[in-house]
Amino acid sequence: MKFGKQTQAILTLVGILLAISACQNSNSHVDGDIAMAERFEFSGGGAYHPDGFGEWRITLAADGTFAPTYQQADVITEYGPFILSEEENKALWELIASAHFASLPETFERPGIPDETAYTFVGYGRNTTSKVEMWTADAKENPALLALTEKIFSLIEQHTKVEVQT
């Protein structure tokens, strides 16, 4: 089938617009925002800290499955998984969204201080993985990250009945 140049140009333009639309509607977001995740992970760092702090890690699924793990040196204790209430799950995902991870640097902006621990935030989407690493002291200066980590630690304490040392 033969088309004129104008028809070919229109068909090419329609193809380009369809491709752009498909990219915008997919879960492979260019900004890599963790708020678009289907699963979220947090690590509090410190598993091998010389003062023996230990490290809390959580995995959160979109359906509210919340699985905390505590590691101190080579001893790992898994808790749950627990199913968060609808309100808990919604509140936690809202805090994740309000942290605006896409606007944060992906990795450390300064050298670490000896024995300093770091937080790691990871979001897994259908086609993407987004990761942000930040020194704990720097994260505590960010109100959104502070609110998020406080909520995570509160949920860990509530569901595991173990006090979280931060």
Order of helices and strands: HEEEEEHEEHH
Q: How many individual helices?
A: 4
Largest sheet: 7 strands, antiparallel
Q: What's the gyration radius in Å?
A: 21 Å
The total beta strand count reads: 7
**Helix amount:** 25-40%
Q: β content, as a range?
A: 15-25%
Distance between the termini: 70 Å
| Structural class by helix and strand composition | alpha+beta
Low-pLDDT windows of residues: 11-32
**Average of per-residue pLDDT values:** 83
Cα shape: globular
Task: Name some characteristics of this structure.
single chain, 166 residues, alpha+beta, seven-stranded antiparallel β-sheet, 4 helices, 24% strand
Structural features, described:
With 166 residues, the chain is α+β, with helices and mostly antiparallel strands. The protein is built from four helices and seven strands; from the N terminus they run αβββββαββαα. It has helices spanning 5-25, 86-98, 136-140, 143-160; strands at 39-43, 55-61, 65-72, 75-78, 82-83, 118-124, 129-135. Strands 1, 2, 3, 4, 5, 6 and 7 form a seven-stranded antiparallel sheet that branches. α2 (86-98) runs antiparallel to α4. The protein is globular and about 40 Å long.
